[in-house]
Structures are given as C-alpha cells and as structure tokens.
Amino acid sequence: METPSPPGRVEPINDIQMYFETRGEGEPLLLLHGGGGVGANWELIFKSPPKGYQLVVPDLRGHGRTTNPSEGFTFRQSGRDVLGLMDRLGIDRFKAIGLSLGAKTMLHVATQQPGRVEAMVLVSATPYFPEPARAIMRGLTEENHSEAEWTQMRQWHTQGDEQIRKIWRQMHGFADSYGDMSFTPPYLSTITARTLIVHGDQDPLYSVQMAMEMFSGIPRSSLWIVPHGGHGPIFGEMAGRFAETALAFLRVSPEE
After folding, report:
1. Could you read off the pLDDT of 11-63 as tens digits, one per residue?
2. Are 222 and 249 in contact (CB under 8 A)?
3. Alpha helices (runs of H) in the chain, residue ranges in sequence order
4. Which domains does the chain have, with CATH numbers?
5. Who is most buried in 25, 58, 83, 220, counting CB within 10 A?
6. HSE of 189 in the Cβ direction (CA atoms, 13 Å)?
7. What is the pLDDT of residues 75-105, one digit of tens each?
C-alpha cells in the first residue's frame, strides 16, 4: 500500500524548501507552531478552518518537512522565511497566531515589516531569554530525551533522526544566544499590529513578568494570563476556549 501524500506543498524560500498547507477560504490567518513541533499541531486547536479564514500553516525552518541546510536557527531568520512565504503566496497583509518559537518568530515579523501584520496572538512568547529559561535550555542535550519523546518526534519530523538531533542542539544553543531575542521597550513600540499576549502563570521558561514587559511595550496590546497554565497553555481542555477567544480578538475591527 502506498503512503498517502501530505496535503500541502513545498516552495523554495530563501535557502530552504518550506512545507506548508493552506486550508479554508477567506482572509489569511498564519499559524506558527512551537519549537520541536510542526504545523499539523494546530489541528488540536482548529479541527476545521474557522469560518472566513484561509489558514496558512507552515513547518518552520528545519521542522517537519521543511529543510534547514545550516546548523543554526535564529528567530530573525525564521521571520524572514515567513515573510518570504507570504510574498510567494502574494499575501501582503495578514493576521497570525504564534506559539512559543512561532510567537518569537512573529515578534521579528512584526518588527521587520510592521505594516504586514494586522493583528496577532502571541502564546508563551518572551522579549528575551531570562536566566531560568537558559538554565533549562542548557539541560536540553541530545542524550537526555526519553524513548517516548523520540517516538513523538519521529512522527512529526520526516527527515531522519539527524534532523531531530539538530533541533535539540539548536534549542540547547539558545542558552548562549543574546542578540537574536533582544526586544527592548523602544523596539517593541514599533509593532503596529493589535496584539493579544497569552501566557500561563506557571510557565517554567518565561515568567508572567516577561508577558507584562511585552504588554507594556507593544502599543495596541491586550493580555490574557491563563490561571494554572504552563508553557503553551492552550491545548487539552483549554483548546476550545483559546480558539474562541483568539478568533474573537482577531475579528474585532480596528475601529471597535
């Protein structure tokens, strides 16, 4: 029996081959997954495309079916990749939801080309890496992942075990990265998109203070602190509520 082909397509963007899927009809809504994840993870939130939206759902650089010929990963370059994809699709202005790695990518997108992003939802983002996060990143070595983690990663990442090792090496390397994520208040103030910041109050990587700094710095921002929420507090029993809240925020017109 032949393995069914994935429903998306691949386009050359910058130095990578980027896999992405488009679903639904309407105004474009970009969905960016978290680190170590893939675009298909969003099906846990949106089982079908929301009415009035065309979802654009890529696998980010080096994740899933998207290549990464370099050993490194920067959020700045990931932002350029996303803008390149939207250029390739002929999409000038769009809305977006980003989770963790995807949310940090969106900070770069929204500062590199502010006029492109009409509204966005940032889940478990941070303006910079605080020391508690760096300590956790230092422990993310290739050797300390369980068989269950390997099994899950092999389901998502189709380019072999070396691809998975590279992702984990890159996450480990974030511990010593200082220039890539360095969003000062003046830098955040250049974001023109309406922004909803969603953050768990028990996030082990980024404290609520990180969310407060973004809320204070981004001019047209709103803040939702999820009680008892960890990192990425939008799945499981929160999925329906998050989808409803995020879509309601995105649908508000600028005049309202």
Report:
1. 999 999 999 999 999 999 999 999 999 999 999 999 999 999 999 999 999 99
2. yes
3. 75-88, 101-112, 131-138, 147-156, 161-173, 185-188, 208-217, 239-251
4. 10-128+182-250 (3.40.50.1820)
5. 58
6. 4
7. 999 999 999 999 999 999 999 999 999 999 9
